[in-house]
Amino acid sequence: MTARGSASDSGAGSRSRMADWGEGENLLNEDPHFPSPTGASGGKMWAICDPTRLPHRIIVLFFMCFLGFGSYFCYDNPAALQTQVIQDMKLSTAWFMELYAWYSWPNVVLCFVGGFLLDRVFGIRWGTVIFSLFVLLGQIIFACGALFNYFWLMAVGRFVFGIGGESLAVAQNTYAVNWFKGKELNLVFGLQLSMARLGSTANMNIMGSIYDKIEIARNSTGPVTLGIVLMIAATTCLLSLICALVLGCLDRRAEKILNKAEGKTGEVIKLKDVKNFPLELWLIFIICVGYYVAIFPFIGLGQVFFIEKFDFSPTEARLINSIVYIISAPASPVLGFLVDKTGKHVLWVMCAVVLTLTAHIMLAFTFWNPWIAMSVLGVSYSLLACALWPMVAFVVPEYQLGTAYGFMQSIQNLGLALISMAAGSILDSRGYLFLEVFFCACICIALIGVVLLYFVDNLKGGDLNLSASGWTRRLKSSSPQSE
């Protein structure tokens, strides 16, 4: 995501791993420890109102999944409307990519303080509402910048949007842990990630059509038409805000009924912990940055690439540019389950990086049907997200997880901001072939990082590349009962 891929993935990795090792209750089954406030004979209707019962938690999960829909839908609005934004606002590609850079800049810092704000300042409920408001306000400012033909105002809108976007993902993960901290947490995170990818896919495939319809209705193109289309997209952010309000009410009600404290992230950022990070973690950071900077900036520029090189129609180009998200939606939960069952995280990451490099080489140096390369890219992107982010929990103690993930996302956003600007400049001056070579070089850096991680991990005992059965034996041998 850019950060859009990482926020949900990082929460899923750390919290699902801790949940599997912990003593969390199975929240999708009936919980015998909490007596139902409605009584045993409440019936199906009462079960919907009972926060200890499955029907009620399904309702909570529904709003939880749609909480980030608007943010993910609007994040790639520029990619879905690349041609229209560049033409209507009279931009170079470098200036166009500034829209992605301005989203990333605030998250270089906010990844460190988002969890703190949720824990210590706003609380999960008000924090979620506030971050949803930032997302909605940012999209409205972005649309107004197009309406009034002020590019600087569009950049301000993306900056405001970025303030809320990543922090909203943190809030979404915190709600998931608070409500589903048992065996189903991996499934819940997978469903949330699938819904996020659904939002990205919908954006890629319908925004161009909406622009065409508004253009026909107004019988003109230009900034006003673009602004109207972006304002329509803002309605999805309003949906996210409504979900945040409903979730807040449901969570407050459950807190009163079950007499429990408001959910916390449990992660406090401590910059002094950075000096104690092991070498393996720094290599994971390098892999993360080298990989994601070759994914999201490429998607941001992909539509025109497929039109120019493969002579696709705009509709076909939008569809193939979204194939990474289309595949990721169903593949992420499946691949996450596969990685959980097999272990071997380093090898899975290596496979993902090699497949991604292969896909970029095909796109750069062949005229093969790009559906092949983009499908490979979609599978490898999903696989890397499932295998890379959980490894952080293997190399740092639990009290440093918040700092480690915050630092990882901050470095990722810094890399995305810089590479987005560089990619736009390269495309303006050298063209798409040179840009693809540049992305291949970034992936090669990630590949070098994976190889080094493999050898460093082996020298230290091979914990990161243990099989699932190996991890089970390791945990049993280190438990107090085995001593």
In terms of topology, how is this protein built?
Blueprint: H1 3-21, H2 43-49, H3 54-66, H4 69-75, H5 77-80, H6 82-88, H7 93-104, H8 107-122, H9 124-147, H10 151-179, H11 185-218, H12 223-258, H13 279-292, H14 296-310, H15 314-321, H16 323-342, H17 345-365, H18 370-388, H19 392-395, H20 401-430, H21 432-459, H22 468-478
DSSP strand tally: 0
Question: Main sheet?
Answer: none
User: With helices defined by DSSP (H or I, 4 residues minimum), what is the helix count?
Assistant: 22
Order of helices and strands: HHHHHHHHHHHHHHHHHHHHHH
User: What fold name goes in the CATH topology slot?
Assistant: Growth Hormone, Chain: A
Mean pLDDT, to the nearest integer, reads: 82
Give the full name of the CATH homologous superfamily: MFS general substrate transporter like domains
- SSE-based structural type: mainly alpha
Head-to-tail CA distance between termini? 44 Å
The shape is globular
Structural overview:
- With 483 residues, this protein is mostly helical.
- It has a single domain, classed as Growth Hormone, Chain: A (Up-down Bundle).
- The protein is 78% helix and 0% strand.
- The chain crosses the membrane at residues 54-73, 99-118, 130-152, 228-250, 281-307, 319-339, 346-365, 371-395, 407-427, 433-456.
- Belongs to the major facilitator superfamily.
- Residues 57-460 form the Major facilitator superfamily (MFS) profile domain.
- It is a multi-pass membrane protein.
- One of its GO terms (cellular component) is lysosomal membrane.
